[in-house]
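Thread: quick sanity check before group meeting

JM: Hey all, I'm pulling together slides for Thursday and realized we never actually wrote out the predicted structure for the chain we discussed last week. Dropping the sequence here so it's in one place. If anyone has concerns about the input, flag it before I start.
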Amino acid sequence: TKNKGKGGKNRSRAKSDRDGKRELHFKNVDEGQEYAQVLKMLGGPWLEAYCFDGQKRLCHICGKMGRKVRIAVGDIVLISLRGFQDNKADVIDKYMPDEVRALKTAGELPETVK
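JM (edit): ok, ran it. Output follows.
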């Protein structure tokens, strides 16, 4: 007989992770972190993002995120700036829509962000 289920043990493991509320991470200026909005996906682990310090940067999605988190154009992400390359950064977190609303309420993001 053919298995008519949807997915295997990895799918059920992923489902259990989805409903858990996670802690909201604010940027840490001491560690060179900044909020950004994704402008363009460039293929592979690269994307172009507009940082809220007023600069466009080429960003690299870190390995542990790239396999689990889907990032799309318009998403709000937390990036870690590189001390030695000002035009490049690393994506370290992606914010869900409810987290973006919470960041706006806390005054961390400009109100113009959709």
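AS: nice. The mean pLDDT is 80. DSSP finds three helices and five strands in the chain.
JM: adding both to the slides.
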